[in-house]
Amino acid sequence: MPALNKVALALGSNLGDRAANLQSALDALIDSGALGDVVVSGTYETEPVGGPEQGPYLNAVVRGNTLLTPTALLREVHRIEDQLGRVRTIHWGPRTVDIDILAYEDEVLDTEDLVIPHPRAHERAFVLMPWSEIDSEHEIGTQGTVAQCLAAVSRTGVVLREDATLHVKTGGI
């Protein structure tokens, strides 16, 4: 039987009903069987980083187990993003949903299509704050733990949105 692998994914949305988009992405990850044993952080509102002028994001982090390889997980993430209306025309542009693979076990991977751990996760409070809620001791490559990285960045402009809580449904692997 294939091994379960612990993964962390970042969810983001800044178009349409942002909270509903994040919930749809979470549900699709579970319904597709890509993730099981899911734990989700609180939802945070943040100003966009980089890219063109655009509206604020809602962000959350999901931890779970997967039977998929990193490449197969990336394909599934892209399929779900496409299904939920993501259009890839402007680099770092607005999007209905964005799903990034932050970590896959303790693997280090650097290919043309996928870099694990996520190359900028350790610099971004909008990733580190929700991630610290559910897995603060995870080592982000050589950068330190999630908690250590969070202590080194500004949290300015990252606000917990208690009115946008995501709910984990049963299912998955």
Class by helix and strand content?
alpha+beta
- Principal-axes geometry comes out as globular
Number of strands: 8
Q: Radius of gyration, Cα only, in angstroms?
A: 15 Å
Separation of termini?
Answer: 13 Å
Order of helices and strands: EHEEEHEEEHHE
Percent range for β-strand residues? 15-25%
Mean pLDDT: 90
Oligomer state equals single chain
Question: Which blocks of ≥5 consecutive residues have pLDDT under 50?
Answer: none
Count of helix runs:
4
**Helix fraction by DSSP (H/I, runs of at least 4):** 25-40%
The largest pleated sheet is described as:
6 strands, antiparallel
Set out the fold topology.
Blueprint: E1 5-13, H1 18-31, E2 36-40, E3 44-46, E4 57-66, H2 70-83, E5 98-104, E6 109-110, E7 115-116, H3 125-135, H4 146-151, E8 159-160
Antiparallel strand pairs: 1-4, 1-5, 2-4, 3-4, 3-8, 6-7
